[in-house]
Design goal:
GO terms for molecular function: undecaprenyl-diphosphatase activity. Keywords: Antibiotic resistance, Cell membrane, Cell shape, Cell wall biogenesis/degradation, Hydrolase, Membrane, Peptidoglycan synthesis, Transmembrane, Transmembrane helix. It comes from Paenibacillus borealis. Catalyzes the dephosphorylation of undecaprenyl diphosphate (UPP). Confers resistance to bacitracin. The structure is a single chain. The chain has 275 residues and is mainly alpha-helical. The longest helix has 27 residues. It has one domain. The protein has twelve helices and no strands. It starts with a helix and ends with a helix.
């Protein structure tokens, strides 16, 4: 690895980690185009490090919401000066993450066996189709009952958590793609689905990345620490900017737009990796 490679991979991670386009697919394609073995142990450790940078970015974006969930933040004051509790609470978050964490824990080796270029290619296509269907159903067939994050019911949080299992079992499907689509299919608005998807990404990605890091911490050496540090910082900055811009432009960038991009990426995937 060199500095330019580290920067490119960190930028790709920061851009793709939280929007529904499959960061896994992008990282495989990028490492392939750069001539690296995606399964190299140092490369895998580097990917964990830059993923942690992206997680820190989302944690800062949602810092006030996190503090509110922990009961130590200001969720707004009524005229009487009383601090009202947010209707979104830790039970919602647990319902959103426990199903996927349980599947990941018990099926870790099985999931790793599924990991391959063809698996990711078809996941890109299938995920795109689900997003198109979710947007169509959300607009025409389902009554939206959760317009904001605090309107989310326990049942809707659990449904999103169950949809997240798809991304765990099918590498390349996209965690945010499955959760945003699951929310929209469950009567949650596009914006509220994205907000909840980003929020529950923090604990589930910390758990997954932390667990993987236990297996690869020995790759932190004097020769690699510079690349890990620069990758972490760049991934953090890029992810922060992307999430902020995405939430500001969410009504203009619809799931179908991401689905079309996924189909294009799948075609590129097939041309450069499958052939």
């Amino acid at each position: 690895m060199d500095t330019i490679t580290a920067i490119i991979l960190a930028i790709v991670e920061g851009i793709t980690e939280f929007i529904p386009v499959s960061s896994t697919g992008h990282m495989i394609l990028t490492t392939k185009l750069l001539g690296f073995d995606e399964q190299d142990s140092i490369m895998k450790t580097y990917e964990i490090v830059i993923q942690l940078g992206a997680i820190l970015a989302i944690a800062i974006v949602y810092r006030q919401r996190i503090l509110n969930l922990l009961g130590i933040g200001r969720s707004g004051r009524s005229r009487g000066g009383v601090m009202p509790a947010s209707r979104l609470n830790l039970i919602h978050v647990l319902l959103g993450i426990v199903p996927a964490l349980a599947v990941a824990f018990f099926a870790r080796d099985f999931i790793k066996g599924l990991f391959g270029a063809s698996t990711v290619l078809w996941a890109l296509v299938a995920g795109g189709i689900l997003m198109i269907v979710a947007e169509w159903v959300n607009k025409r067939k389902i009554r939206v009952t959760a317009h904001e994050l605090d309107d989310l019911s326990y049942g809707q949080a659990l449904a999103i958590g169950l949809y997240q299992i798809i991304s765990v079992l099918w590498p390349g499907f996209s965690r945010s793609g499955s959760t945003i689509s699951g929310g929209m299919l469950s009567g949650v608005s596009y914006k509220a689905s994205a907000d909840f998807s980003f929020l529950i990404a923090i604990p589930i990605m910390c758990a997954a990345s932390g667990y993987e890091l236990l297996d690869s911490y020995r790759n932190f050496t004097n020769d690699t620490i510079w690349y890990f540090a620069i990758g972490f910082v760049i991934s953090f900055v890029v992810a922060y900017v992307v999430v902020v811009l995405f939430m500001r432009m969410i009504q203009k960038i619809r799931p179908t737009h991401f689905a079309i991009y996924r189909f294009i990426l799948a075609a590129v995937f097939w041309l450069f990796i499958m052939r």
